[in-house]
Amino acid sequence: MYETWMRFFTPSPVHHRLGLVCLGVGLQHGPLPTVGPRTLDHHVAVVVAAGSGWFLGPDGHRAPVTAPALLWLTPGVPHHYSADPDTGWDESFVDFCGPATATYTELGYIEPDRPVVPLADAAPARAVIGRIARAARPGNPLLEVETAAAVHELLVTLRHARADTTADGAPVLAALARDACTPLTVAEHAARHGMSTAELRTAVQRTAGRSPKDYLLTIRLGRAKELLAGTELSVSAVARRVGYDDPAYFSRLFTRRVGTAPVRFRAQQRVTLPGGWNTAVPVPDPEHKPAVSPGSG
Predict the structure, then answer these.
(1) How confident is the model at residue 199 (pLDDT cuts 50, 70, 90)?
(2) Checking phi first, is residue 19 left (phi over 0); if not, alpha (psi -120 to 50) or beta?
(3) How many whole angstroms separate alpha carbon 197 and alpha carbon 203?
(4) Residue-wise DSSP of 246-276
(5) Which of 57, 136, 142, 153 is the most exposed place for a label (fewest CB within 10 A)?
(6) CA distances from 285 to 24, 32, 106, 136 (A)
C-alpha cells in the first residue's frame, strides 16, 4: 500500500523563455512500484527524504540509495530505480526543462554523471517542492511563473543540501548512513574512509550540523521507526537490526530520544497513518482523490 499525489503542466512557449519551466510535481510515500527501465525527454529531480532503495544507471551499476538523497533523471539517459519493497521510501519529485538547464549543468548544479547524490538534509528541498505543489491549485493564474521561479530555487537549494565527501571522494554522510547499523565506533567509521576522528567530526558537523555519534544515532533510530511502523518484528529483533544487542538499552535509548517507548510508538502508528505519512506536505484537493500510479516523473 502506498500513497501518491501528482500534477502535470504544459507551459506555453512564452513561459519557456523564463529559462526553466515546471512540467510536473509529485509526492509519494510507501513501497512504490519500480520505475523503468525508461528514458525521458526532460529533467526530473527526485528527493528521497526517508527510506532506502536502489538506482540502476545506463552503465549497469546498481547503486544503493539511502535517504536523504537526490536522484537526477536527465534527458536521453536510461534509468531504473526502486524503493525497498518492504519499507518503501518517502519521495517528492519535480519535472522541469528549459534552456537554462544547460547553464545549471555547466555550473554543476545539475549532475548528469552523478545520478545519486547524498544530501545532508532533504527538508529544505521538500519545502520548495511543497510550494510548487501548493501553486498547482486549480485556477491559479500565476501557476507557470510561480512554479518556474521555484524550480530555480530548488536547484540552488539542492546544491546547498549536498552531503560532504570523504578523503577519497565518497559521500561521507551516505557512507555513515549505509553503515550506521553496524557495530562500529566513530573512530572505526573514520578509519574505513581514510579519515581521522577529528576530520570526520569536522565533515559531519559542517554538513549535518551534528556530531558523527549523533548523526549515526539519528540514522539508527530512523531505521528503527521504519521497522516498528512497517513490520511485525519484535522490539528485540528491531534492536538487533539497528545495531543493539541489548533490547533493554535500545528501549531506554529510543524512549529518551523519541519521547515514547518502542511498543507505544508502534501502537500510535497503527492508529494514525501507515508509515508516518508526512502531513506537512500538501494533499490533493477534495475533488481529486489520490490515485495509484506506476511511478514518478
Answers:
(1) confident
(2) left
(3) 10
(4) -HHHHHHHHHHHHSS-HHHHHHHHHHS-GGG
(5) 142
(6) 16, 22, 38, 10
Are the beta carbons of 15 and 145 closer than 8 angstroms?
yes
CA distance 27 to 6: 6
Distance from C-alpha of 24 to C-alpha of 95, rounded to nearest angstrom:
5
Give the separation between CA 223 and CA 1, rounded to whole angstroms. Answer: 19
Q: Please, what's the b/e burial string for 188-201 (b: 16 or more CB within 10 A of its CB; e: otherwise)?
A: ebbebbebeeeebb
**Chain CA centroid to CA 71, Å:** 8
Mean pLDDT computed over every residue of the chain: 86
Identify residue 7 by its one-letter amino acid code.
Answer: R
Given a contact cutoff of 8 angstroms between Cβ atoms, the answer to whether 171 and 165 are in contact is yes
pLDDT bracket for residue 271 (50, 70, 90): low
| Sequence-separated (6 or more) residues with CB below 8 Å from residue 254 | 221, 224, 261, 262, 265
CA distance 277 to 280: 9
Matching residue, cell 508526512 = 278
